[in-house]
Amino acid sequence: MLYMVFYICLSLLLSSCATVVSPSGGDKDFLPPEIIHTYPKNQSINFKENKIFISFNEYVQIKNKSQINFFPEIEPRPSIKVKGKTIIIDLQASLKLNTTYSLNFNNSIVDINESNALRNFQYVFSTGSFIDTCKLNGFVFDLKSNSKIVESKVGLFKNKLTLDFDSLIRHSSPDYFVLSDENGKYSFSNLQTGNYILYAFKDFNLSTYYEEKESVSMPIEIQIHNNQVVNIPLFIDNRFIKKDTLKCLYRIEKKDSLKIGAVNLKFKKEIYDYDKYVGELILNDSSVFCFHINSNNIKIDSLPEGGYTFRMFNDINNNDIWDSGNVKTLTPPEKIKFFDEKINVRKDWEIDVYIK
Q1: What's the rounded mean pLDDT across residues 53-76?
Q2: How far apart, in whole angstroms, are the C-alpha atoms of residue 320 and residue 26?
Q3: Which pLDDT tens digit goes with each residue over 189-238?
Q4: Distances from the Cα of 338 to the Cαs of 145, 236, 280, 307, 312, in angstroms?
Q5: Mean confidence (pLDDT) of the chain
Q6: Strand order of the sheet with strand 220-224?
Q7: How far is residue 231's CA from residue 68's CA, in Å, rounded to a whole number?
Q8: pTM score, two decimals?
Q9: What is the pLDDT of residue 79?
Q10: Which of 28, 221, 245, 266 is deepest in the core (most CB within 10 A)?
Q11: For 295, what's the count of Cα atoms within 13 Å in the CB-facing half-sphere?
């Protein structure tokens, strides 16, 4: 009887061990850290503290301190530490009187587990009795494709000259910068009125400086007051790209001659009279047909079925090349205009498209 009880207990024990499983994990966290408290409060006036505390609902870390900037610059640079769920900023410098300060964290604050970023968080305070309220925003886009650019660095220099702009952006970080979001939008807030240089570039290697073959904009001298909207086109400097004549100036033979249609492009008088525009029909991001716009109506037939886009550029020097800009000589790129609507070519159809 004793042996029987022993084997029953042993059997139950083994059965119990065999059914032990590790607890299943919950749903993946896609939410960024949430701020639950700041001391002093964000947007404080008459600021006199030497430390700032920002507390979150979860454990956080600073992923890239180079993304954090202070405007105006604070010297020596504040110490930034993370303790559990709190970020502590130690202001080791004497602050200017009656000045609005912006601490822009961009996308540097992430949670511990999934690295979800708190995007474009700003902590703002004033050592005076009011906070500056000027705003500047817009979109960053690629000049040739017209597509929005994500995480482009958009910078402001205050009271600088553009005479040596190329050297300025190669060797100096902007006084204040933000990153464009997933829709290509950038936004500055709490700016002082005054004169600025606005520019943007795609900082591929996160060096904080513009380098060769990175997309860049021409400098825009701007006097900031109230709320302003400025869109910024980026291009590759013509010193760093190969120049080719437009191969699509001659029609490309199409293998499939059964599914083709035609387009009649009709232009305003001021466009074709100018006689310096080159037009391009684009399919799947490739130029398939290019032509000089020198007539009111240009018919293009034998086009394969598909959804086309149309753009034209101002060929100022009549060299059949779209000339990019040069930030060293401050020479802007030749202007490009896009037709907003899709041009749908169908088999055996001939459609009229009016370009304004």
Answers
A1: 92
A2: 59
A3: 999 999 999 999 999 887 888 998 899 999 999 999 889 999 999 999 99
A4: 9, 19, 10, 15, 7
A5: 87
A6: 176-179, 153-158, 194-201, 220-224
A7: 23
A8: 0.82
A9: 94
A10: 266
A11: 8
